Amino acid sequence: MIENTENYLDDDALTLVGRFEEMIKAETLYYFDVHEFESIIDHYIEKGNLLEAVKVSNIANRQHPGAISLQIKKAQILVDREQHLEALSILKNIQGIESSNKEILLLKGNIYNHIGKPELAKKQFDKALQVSYENREDLLFRIALAFEQLSQFGLAIEYLEEALELDEEDSEVLFELGYCYEKIGEDDQSIMAYEQFLELNPFSDNAWYNLGIIFNRMGNFPKAVEAYEFTLAVNDQHSKAYFNKANALANQGLFEEAIKCYTEYLEFDDDHASTYSYIGECFEKMDEYEQALINYETAIKTDENLADPWFGMGLILMYQDKIDECLVYLEKAKNLDDTNSDYWFALGSAYARANSPQKAVQAFREAIDLDPYDTTYPITLAEYYHQNENEETAIDVLLESLAQTPNCPQLLSNLAAYYAITGDIKSSEHYIRQAIDIDSENINDIFIQFPELKKNKIFTKLIKANQ
């Protein structure tokens, strides 16, 4: 049996709509009472036909100029059409007649919300709560949604928490609480709300999926995978769950399982280029370079404007010492996205190996400028200067970076090493002390990077004396 697609309206309402449209065609005027006009207006609002709703409203207000409910309907239509100031003018006029009308207060609250005045909106909503003696929980939920829709998540949480006090097992409230806490970065609170929701609705794939996103953001990848598995157990057509599960597996180094999930995701999503690129990256991390290259090439053929597979191809060719070829791919990746610091860093490394010092330094500098907080970049550039027997410039690079990240033990220990190499023992000791104060356990790792310093008795004594 085929269901009526307009089941939100009863037969009487549809009859009224038909009669109204007949009146318009006949270019005459029929009488409708206030409730009948409200039904007709609701029909057009729910259909999204706001122009027709305006037409009905204008006729309705001419027939019933004193009907407050019809003026409220007109204001509602104006709000839906984003004519907020006109709607507000109507509501202010009729509020003098019905100052405690809940619907007027709620509409005014929505308008203030939409025009960027959330505190005024809150005052109107709170007044509506004061004059409402029934269905308080439902009203709190409606107000919360009004704030949530405009990303006022902190305000939404206030009303949701109050609603939850009235019914701690209201699943709708719990779900929205989980969502709002997630949006403001209160991950523990969000998890708690979603878990309470799932106790009541264990077959909600969306709740399991949202939970997975939060665990993933927290770096708890095993719990993220578990949540995505529940998502798929409930709904095996939830495509993004395959993708996110694959990412969470890859983040744990479980690349074979990740590849399987990415492959399943290919059956759902049209963005095959990105997915093939991720598969290529997994093979790359497994040192299966031929398979990685195949998937990167497939990604490029699918979308030649996607930068990541060009970058991945470039890295593998660099690992294989095919520097000239590697530069072609890395330059392409950089040209497609010149704001990616990793691309510039890889280019710097490739140009260094190609004996192009000017281009190498320029690329390393670009990487540092784009992400001054990633200390790998300045440490590598300093090492490049050191390899070219230019320790003073290496020190300058690290001192510049230290201004951005003053408590990085790797920067401090590298500075100590370069000062020791240049014979500035006082400065070397100064930075050794700082590095040890922050991380005493790993200070000896500096000898892995600078094995020649094992033979420097002064430097080794400085480390032992300060440990």
TrEMBL record:
Q: Name one Pfam family in it.
A: TPR_8
Record bears the keyword Repeat: yes
The answer to keyword Repeat applying to this record is yes
Tell me one GO biological process term: cell division
Provide this UniProt record's keywords sorted from A to Z: Repeat, TPR repeat
Q: Which InterPro entries match?
A: TPR-like_helical_dom_sf, TPR_2, TPR_rpt
TPR repeat intervals: 137-170, 171-204, 205-238, 239-272, 273-306, 341-374
| Annotated protein name in UniProt | Uncharacterized protein
